[in-house]
Amino acid sequence: MSVLETKMERPPDWNRPTDLQPHGENELLEVSMGPHHPSTHGVFRMDVTLDGERIIRLKPVFGYLHRNHEKLGEGQTYLASMPYTDRLDYFCSLTNNWAYALAVEKLAGIEVPERAQYLRVILAELTRAQNHASSVGFLIQDMGASGTPLMYAFKEREKILDLFESLTGSRMMCNYMRFGGCRVDATPAWLDQTRKVVAGIPAFADEFEALLCENEILMARTQGIGILRPELAVNAGVTGPLLRASGVDYDIRKVDQYGIYDRFDFKVPLGDRWDVYDRFMIRLLELRQSLRILEQALKDIPGGPVMDPKAKIRGFRPKPGEVYGRIEAPKGELGFYLISDGSPNPYRYRVRPPSLINLTILEEMCIGHNVADIVLILGSVDIVLGEVDR
Amino acid sequence: MKTVEEIKAAIEAAVPDAAVEVVSNPSPSGQHSLRLAPARALEVAKFLRDDPELTFDFLSNVTGVDWPDKEVSERVKVTRQVTKVVDGVEQTVEESAEETRKRVEPGFLEVVYHLYSVAKKHGPVVLRMRTVNRTNAVELPSLTPIWRSAEFQEREIFDLFGIVFTGHPDLRRILMWEGFKDYPMRRDYVEPDDFEYEPTAHDEVLKRAQEHRNREQATPAAKERPPGAPAGNGETREQGLIAE
């Protein structure tokens, strides 16, 4: 926090990208990276202006997957939007479900039973673990270590997806949470299997770290690249591991203590160099913290119902009003803003997509670096285009 | 954290003619909001960010809401003078009756900002601003100079709702393509009938597309590029290279 407390004298344009001027008489080159570039993690384009190898200007262009998710949400009932939220960030459907359920529960004042709260925490942390493992895998893949490290991460992700499948019926499109609880209960066998999988992840994390973290090429490629100052990060609305890698202590699990996160003992890792390497390390450290939460939750999970018996599923009409509910999704702050006019459909349904807002400072991070570093910096932001474009 | 009323008082102390109103929220969430007058919004926003006690340094969410013209019918008690024949003599008598009156409440577009504080770890504070109407006076001041996170979100609102943010550094369409004409998130948006939006379009969709083609052939003069047609990869080419 010390960085934020020091008051800087701000020039009028302090939160705009620096305008780099080209050297000498070199001709400028405009490159359109994407939309079908293997490193863009989907259909995403960057219009880059280069002076030799140096990036002078970069404008992200997206919307290729735009389907107006928000309009769809306004045209159907509250519950009917639940499976659509799976398709936002399709790596982390369970946290999307939770964010939406949390917003509606706040809007209508619904209580969630104990056991459902624990199940939600377990599933959200499993989601975070697999997202962070594979996003690190993708980052290394982007660096040119084709295949192997990513498959190491995917091997672990597959075990977690198997758990999701046996509980919810689907590997990725889980559609599991309901307003006032969860759809089905977990069996003791499922919990045992989860304990086994969780017990196996630390060994994977050690192996992954040993393989990568002291790798000379990785260090040379990522250290000092894509520096994001904490002041700008906060001002630009950056959230999630990207913000914490810039040294800002802000984790919504700690700040809002939604659900039952006040009961668990875990730490918030912070970066001190604010570069790509820090973001990569923060994800590995957060993975270990998720495991700590998982161990505690799996030990303490009580019995009981997983749905509030008073929760209304058919004919659900919340009273007029509005709400903004948010959670700490693996990519950052995922929020839902809902306005109810008393009808079965929301009057306004808005998703605050962390991936989109984290892209605001992509240009800032890339300017002055070489063109090959764009791929790494974008990888360290960790975007999913289903959520950016909505 | 201070309550909405206390924040309102603090704003009024700092920006005397701010004209802030509290908008209450009946839902159990209890997130009440503050409506700002667009004229002084930038100063209020700057105060909220820089005040040492409030320090709302993190603008989380920006969104638009469309409130179209609303026809309100209400029953009003009216007293009117009626000429009546009472006991064979014409008299003017006051009579009260109920009448249904219809009036149109003009619509407007609204922007909603959700602020949090990273330094103080409190929030949210909800700010709202209204445009004058939905057609020709849709300008609102952009808060991007205060919070950079509004940049893409205000562009999105411009794109989908058609609110024009004055002072925004780069106001272009963001999700729809350059050259798209309408604003899809408005409540009265009608989707074009000339594209076959399903991967395997059939029945109703094909029928609509065919009807559209028939109409176009019947009136060739009215042939224009449909609103859905891409304008080519325009935006960077138009701006040109920096060096030029």
> What name does the CATH topology of the largest domain in chain B carry?
Beta Polymerase, domain 2
Low-pLDDT residue intervals, each spanning 5 or more residues of chain B = 229-244
Shape of chain A: globular
Strand content of chain A: 5-15%
User: Largest interface by residue count?
Assistant: A-B, 61 and 43 residues
Distance between the termini of chain A: 33 Å
**Strand pairing plus helix content of chain A: what structural class?**
alpha+beta
- Count of structural domains of chain B: 3
> Can you give the mean pLDDT of chain A?
87
Helix proportion of chain B: 10-25%
Enumerate the strands of the largest sheet of chain A in spatial order, edge to edge or round the barrel: 1-2-3
For this structure, what is the CATH homologous superfamily of the largest domain in chain B? NADH:ubiquinone oxidoreductase Nqo5 subunit
CATH architectural grouping of the largest domain in chain B? 2-Layer Sandwich
Detail the poorly predicted runs of chain A: none
Approximately how much beta-strand content do the residues of chain B carry?
A: 25-35%
Total beta strand runs of chain B: 9
Element string of chain B (H = helix, E = strand): HEEHEEEEEEHEHH
Give me the strand/helix succession of chain A: HEEEHHHHHEEHHHHHHEEEHHHH
Structural class of chain B: alpha/beta
Structural account:
The complex is a heterodimer of chains A (390) and B (244). Chain A is of the alpha+beta class. Chain A is 46% helix and 12% strand. Chain A has helices spanning 2-5, 69-74, 82-86, 93-108, 114-142, 148-168, 188-212, 216-222, 230-235, 241-245, 252-255, 276-300, 354-358, 362-366, 371-381, 385-389, and strands at 28-33, 45-51, 54-61, 177-178, 181-182, 321-329, 332-340, 348-352. The model of chain A has no long low-confidence stretch (mean pLDDT 87). By secondary structure, chain B is of the alpha/beta class. Chain B has helices at 4-14, 41-50, 150-161, 203-218, 234-239, and strands spanning 21-23, 33-35, 58-67, 70-86, 89-105, 108-117, 122-130, 139-141, 164-166. In chain B, the strands form 3 sheets. Chain B has a 5-stranded mixed sheet with strand order 1-2-7-6-3, with helices on one face. In chain B, strand 6 (108-117) and strand 7 (122-130) form a beta hairpin. The radius of gyration of chain B is 26 Å and the shape is flat. Chains A and B meet through strand 1, strand 3, helix 4, helix 9 and strand 6 of A and strand 3 and helix 3 of B.
